[in-house]
Write a structure and sequence with these properties.
The chain is an all-alpha fold and 351 residues long. The chain has helices spanning 32-54, 67-85, 90-107, 110-130, 138-162, 168-190, 199-225, 228-245, 251-268, 275-289, 299-324, 330-334, and strands at 2-3, 11-12. It has one domain. Helix content is 68%, strand content 1%. Strand 1 (2-3) and strand 2 form a beta hairpin.
Length: 351
């Protein structure tokens, strides 16, 4: 609805309370008490799984056999959280994930361990993004940013606890591909499909996609076809950074994944097409969850690299957020600001 004040200028009417713009499924549990009990149970399982998985990289006087069961518990928690948040069928995905976890713990073959580690990384990286909420303020964006990284880090510990014998480059590529495919599948309905993108958002989406391709292609080209002096210069820079700061920021997280997380939750507070920006945030969380899959990885080095990437990515994201949320014209600035878009609670289904 709109009204025309004196002078005939039409302004936006913010008197109508906002409603969620997607149909959602009925609650799985009719009793609020039962729903709260299950939520607390899943949270406790997440804490227990994270603590047990952390013993794989922290020297504690604990039995070594608890690492993989803890990782399996976390994998089930990620499956429950992602399936519920995405409105999937719990009776289908939960048993499949549980069977894979039990089989990997009991049989311990290379194929099962690698499969369990990959599934854990994919579920954690996607759920870390979907568990966020739309926020219009900087403080809210910082909160959602920290929560997503916390969930992704628990996935990192679970992948390390599996101690799967895998090739890092191949494993990382598989997890990244599966995570992006799953994220696009879930976001297609949440973001109103590609046809729901406006010209500005489509330009942002294509720009980020082009940047992803450019970073990946350039890094691959430098490693395989770069001159010896250029490769040596990069190697020297990485070595100097590692020796000086004991960690090296990861460019794909700093320039793409983590900034997309900040911009996505902010844009989502106005239009649901902001979900498409969050697809690229999955790149950052997926790289994070696979960072400790190699048994030879140094936890201190990976931890400091992640910290530097998170700080730099946050700075880039805040700058981009300010540009993306800027009013496109003076006419739009004169209009009454639209009501902030709402979504279901954090632990409710999005569709």
């Amino acid at each position: 609805m709109s009204r025309a004040p004196k002078g005939g200028r039409r302004r936006l009417d913010a008197s109508v309370p906002p409603e969620y713009d997607l149909p959602t499924r009925e609650p799985r549990l009719e009793s609020p008490r039962a729903a709260r009990f299950v939520m607390v149970l899943v949270f406790v399982a997440w804490l227990a799984g994270t603590a047990g998985s952390a013993t794989s990289i922290i020297a504690l006087d604990t039995p070594g056999w608890i690492e993989r069961p803890a990782a399996a518990l976390l994998m089930v928690v990620f499956a429950v959280g992602l399936t519920h948040r995405g409105g999937g069928h719990m009776r289908l995905w939960l048993p499949m994930t549980a069977v894979l976890g039990v089989a990997a713990v009991v049989v311990e073959t290379n194929l099962l361990l690698a499969s369990a580690a990959a599934v854990t990384a994919v579920l954690a990286s996607v759920w870390a993004v979907l568990v966020t909420r739309p926020v219009p303020t900087v403080a809210g964006a910082l909160r959602e940013y920290a929560l997503a990284l916390l969930v992704a880090l628990s996935g990192t510990l679970a992948v390390a606890a599996w101690n799967a014998p895998v090739n890092y480059q191949r494993f990382n590529l598989i997890v990244l591909t599966l995570s992006l495919g799953l994220a696009i599948t879930l976001v297609w309905n949440l973001g109103a499909g590609l046809h729901g993108l406006g010209r500005q958002n489509l330009g942002i989406l294509l720009g980020v996609a082009a940047l992803v391709m450019l970073v990946i292609a350039y890094s691959s080209f430098v490693r395989t076809h770069g001159s010896q002096s250029l490769v040596q210069a990069f190697s020297d820079l990485v070595m100097w950074t590692r020796q000086t700061f004991h960690g090296v920021p990861r460019p794909i997280e700093v320039l793409i994944g983590f900034p997309a997380l900040i911009v996505g939750v902010a844009l989502r507070s106005k239009r649901r097409e902001g979900w498409w920006i969050l697809v690229f945030a999955v790149i950052g969380t997926a790289v994070l969850t696979t960072s400790l899959v190699s048994p030879g990885a140094y936890p201190k080095y990976i931890g400091l690299s992640t910290l530097y990437s998170a700080v730099l990515g946050l700075a880039v994201g805040l700058v981009l957020r300010r540009q993306v949320l800027k009013e496109p014209s003076s006419r739009a600035a004169r209009a009454i600001a639209p009501v902030v878009r709402v979504e279901p609670p954090r632990f409710a289904a999005l569709k």
